[in-house]
Amino acid sequence: MFDVLRRYLTGFAAIIYCCYALLVSPNVMSNELNLSVSDESFRVNYSVDFQGNDISSDLDYFYNEDVEVGLLGAGIYVSGRSNASTGRQTAGIGTRLFHADLDGPNGSALSFGGFIKHRLSQANLLSVRASLFKAPGVTSFDRVEDYLEFTLSLEYQLLDSADLYLGYRDLEVDFGDGDVDLDETFILGLIMRF
Fold it and tell me: 3-state DSSP call for residue 6?
């Protein structure tokens, strides 16, 4: 158990410290807590947007009890309104560093990708959101050779500061002896902004 804890802390101590320093910075404009669950998995994501620019950062933890995997991640993104939209569409691109700890193989990877969110014009309380992140072998470390994460969701704005969503998530990691599906299921989630 101490080896697992040491691996997490060694790889992510500097990232977590930097993200924490950014979170308590006076330049933070908004915070968002995103919780999602399925029958076998749980994910919590905490993100912040910074005042005066389009930069956001997040911390992420994912756990799947069926595969017995824990994923710890941190990311930084440039996001804002898409130039192709009339204010109904936001997009972001960036990078996410994660560490996967399975009962057996584990490793880390630096993934690249982004998201797009479109608010429907006929039903302005509904939004469609898609995200895709990929880590090729060249940015993967230890036993990880490839990483792919795809999410598609339909969000409903329940309150000004809270959304409910239903979606689909596909999360795969290749450890060299084939892909391991960490999550490939429908999810139910809650987003809270403060």
Answer: helix
Contacts of residue 128, Cβ cutoff 8 Å, sequence gap at least 6:
117, 118, 120, 152, 153, 154, 155
pLDDT in tens, 123-158: 778 999 999 999 988 888 887 888 899 999 999 999
Q: How far out from the chain centre does Cα 16 lie?
A: 15
What are 22-33's pLDDT values in tens digits?
555 555 567 899
> What DSSP element (H or E) covers 132?
strand 126-135
> What share of the chain in percent tops pLDDT 70?
80
Which pTM does this prediction carry? 0.81
Name the phi and psi angles at 14, rounded to 5. -65, -40
pLDDT tens digit string along 52-91? 778 888 999 999 888 778 888 999 999 877 766 566 788 8
User: Three-state SS across the chain?
Assistant: CHHHHHHHHHHHHHHHHHHHHHHCCCCEEEEEEEEEECCCEEEEEEEEEECCCCEEEEEEEEEECCCCEEEEEEEEEEEEECCCCCCCEEEEEEEEEEEEEECCCEEEEEEEEEEEEEECCCCCCEEEEEEEEEECHHHEEECCCEEEEEEEEEEEEEECCEEEEEEEEEEEEECCCCEEEEEEEEEEEEEEEC
Task: Tell me the C-alpha distance between 126 and 61, whole Å.
Answer: 26
